[in-house]
Amino acid sequence: MDRNNLTTSFRALDASLGRIKTHLGWLSLKQSEWRPGDPPVLAVETDLVQDLRHEEAVFLKTATELHEAINEAKKKGVADAKLAKRCRQLLKLEAEYHRLDIPKGL
């Protein structure tokens, strides 16, 4: 993976994380507006959950591809400051993803 592809992949990963946060925000709003005995406030729950799960898959796939590209570059002996920065950037995005309170079993 060349540097332009790495840049594009990191942008995609960051955008995917943003979409996950947006979906979680909508889920939180839906839960905060729900009152026992009332119909669901947001009737798009099934689509919202599906979109969230899809975006999680996109994030994890992209992160895996980036790990593979970084590891491949390291195997080839590329050890520059930009590669180290990319590695830290990937770990930071993954840590942010893991800190999200994504409900299990939706």
Word description of this protein:
With 106 residues, the protein is mainly alpha-helical. The protein has one domain (3-99): Topoisomerase I, Chain A, domain 4 (Orthogonal Bundle). The chain contains three helices and no strands. It has helices at residues 3-33, 45-75, 81-99. The longest helix is centred in the first third of the chain and has 31 residues, at 3-33. The model has no long low-confidence stretch (mean pLDDT 87).
Task: Write down the CATH class.
Answer: Mainly Alpha
How can the largest sheet be summarized? none
Provide a count of the helices. Answer: 3
| Average residue pLDDT | 87
Globally, the shape reads: elongated
Q: How many domains comprise the coordinates?
A: 1
Write a compact overview of the structure shown.
The protein has 106 residues and is mainly α. Helices cover 76% and strands 0% of the residues.
Features:
mainly alpha, 106 residues, single chain, Topoisomerase I, Chain A, domain 4
List the helices and strands and how they pair.
Elements lengths: L2 H31 L11 H31 L5 H19 L7
Helix pairs in contact: 1-2, 1-3, 2-3
